[in-house]
Amino acid sequence: MAYKYNDNTFIMEITQFDAKGSGRAVIQRENKQGKRKKQHITIPYTLPGERVQATLVPPYRNRVAKPDQIIEAHPERIEPACLHFGKCGGCSWQHISYATQLKEKTSQVKQLLEEQHFDSNVVQSTIGADEAWYYRNKMEFTFNKAGELGLHEKGNYQNIIPLETCFIASQEMVNATTEVAKWAQAHRLSGYDKETKEGLLRHLMVRHSQATGEMMLALFATESPVESSALSDLKERIKDKFPSVTSLLWLENRDIADKVQAQQVHVLAGRDFIYDELAGYRYRLWYDTFFQTNPKQAEKLVELALEMAQPQATDKMIDLFCGVGTFSLPFASRVSQLAGIEIVESSIASAKRNASDNGVHNTLFLAKDARHGLRKMLETFGNPDVLLLDPPRSGAGGKVMRRIARSKPKRIVYVSCNPRTLVSDIKEFVPFGYQLEVVQPVDLFPQTYHVECVALLQRETI
Ligand SMILES: C[S@@+](CC[C@H](N)C(=O)[O-])C[C@H]1O[C@@H](n2cnc3c(N)ncnc32)[C@H](O)[C@@H]1O
Fold first, then answer.
1. What are the start and end residues of each CATH 2.40.50.1070 domain in the chain?
2. Where does S-adenosyl-L-methionine bind (predicted)?
3. Most-buried pick from 107, 197, 339, 421 (CB within 10 A)?
4. What is the reported pTM?
5. 417 classed as catalytic
6. Which residues contact ligand 1 via a Cβ below 6 A?
């Protein structure tokens, strides 16, 4: 329980993490009627077991406090590496030793399963990254209205922190981003102002393959590129200093919605895609292709999924939410036939191309949403022996899960980037006689509270 310090400042005991990896504490506060009330407070960048002095920040209804002083620090608290830590919305756990990050991720998954009455003994210890820094192969940066390029400020997405360092992207990505930032400043180019809807430059997306070394720089702007000295200068700077850039794009996004999207693609240099490789397969990645952002850990995911699913040469398999085929291709070479389903048409086009580029010929791919796509696929393809699903953070949802269960696959491998939706989804399988055999958390996102899991469910034979 907390002691009041002055009006909005309290001494707090951190008791647990919240769902987003911030510390939580309970305080006693007087309401307008003078009654003392218990309030649950979120204190970012604190750890359970710590004693801190923290001040509530407006708007008070959000019940968030900023730590002013760590009075008793957790023994695993460490000095964050990045100067943007605490301001940038990217990393939230740089102040926690890596070993403790892994332990916390395992406990988080166990706790979510226990809350839904699953046996948490099926949860294995989180598999950590060999390299907990510089692991990301894709980053998105934003221009502010002054044309400065950087990262969104945590809690204030209108504000941009000009980029100086980033410890989770490769140095080559940071250097290329810094060069584009210097170019925009040198030519006094304006950034897009979300309020007035004016300004030229919106975002810079950087993709960098760790396997092939190829890099894509994609500039999002509100207008088409004018053939000007500024543009020639950009091409020269990139050509001279970054020969790894095999794709330099200008993407026109005239939409008011400030998403990383484009109505028109202009190739300024190279191709409109880069090559990447994962688990021995080669992929073409366009600017809008979903691809695993931590490729080294993603290879471990693929290996685990293969181990759990034990695909047999006679098996028919469905890969639901297949993207560009990251799981489809390694599995296809081990089963008789594989069908992939995915909502984004360009990803399905890419999956087909990736399959043929890699000499994989026993696949078929359908561009449709999971629910309707699965129904349609089951009619023509028949029931699968093995089903793998890898939905987005929002999960697959009850209807999709029940449809999967009714198709009676012997083994289901569920790959998830959100343990919360994983647990609520797999609950749907229980009435159909599926047993949760194992949940293996894998750390794809070091320095953040996020965790990926691979779960195996098997149908009990009666
Ligand atoms: C976490 S990604 C996994 C992709 C792929 N398995 C991989 O590892 O690269 C989730 C995928 O689901 C797709 N998706 C999102 N909503 C969908 C829906 N309603 N139906 C089918 N696919 C969907 C996304 O486009 C994305 O490619």
1. 138-278
2. 292, 321, 342, 390
3. 339
4. 0.93
5. yes
6. 290-292, 321-324, 326-327, 342-344, 347, 369-370, 390-392, 417
